[in-house]
Amino acid sequence: MLNTMDMIDRLEHYRLENKITQQILAKKLGVAFTTVNRWLKRHVSPSPIQEYQIKKLISSKPERRKYDRLLG
């Protein structure tokens, strides 16, 4: 099971690997840009519901991620 800091590290890796902005990442997760920015700067931690959405996104299959990226 991922701890919060490892999950945030993986989220940042996902963002960079998929060449998406924090704003697009926020849209994918259904949160505000400022929320993602605060997570990545370690100012706040995601709520349990947000953690679930993050885990779902970062564990998605590569083909699905490519399709998602095309959709924006």
Walk me through this protein's architecture:
- With 72 residues, this protein is mostly helical.
- The relative contact order is 0.18.
- The longest helix is centred in the N-terminal third of the chain and has 14 residues, at 4-17.
- It is built from five helices and no strands.
- Helix 1 crosses helix 4 and helix 2 (22-29) crosses helix 3.
- The radius of gyration is 11 Å and the shape is globular.
- The chain has one domain (4-71): 434 Repressor (Amino-terminal Domain) (Orthogonal Bundle).
How much is the average pLDDT?
A: 90
**What is the straight-line distance between the termini?**
29 Å
- SSE order, as H and E? HHHHH
Shape: globular
Q: What characteristics describe this protein?
A:
72 residues, mainly alpha, 434 Repressor (Amino-terminal Domain), 0% strand, globular
Short description, anyone?
The protein is an all-alpha fold and 72 residues long. The protein has a single domain, classed as 434 Repressor (Amino-terminal Domain) (Orthogonal Bundle).
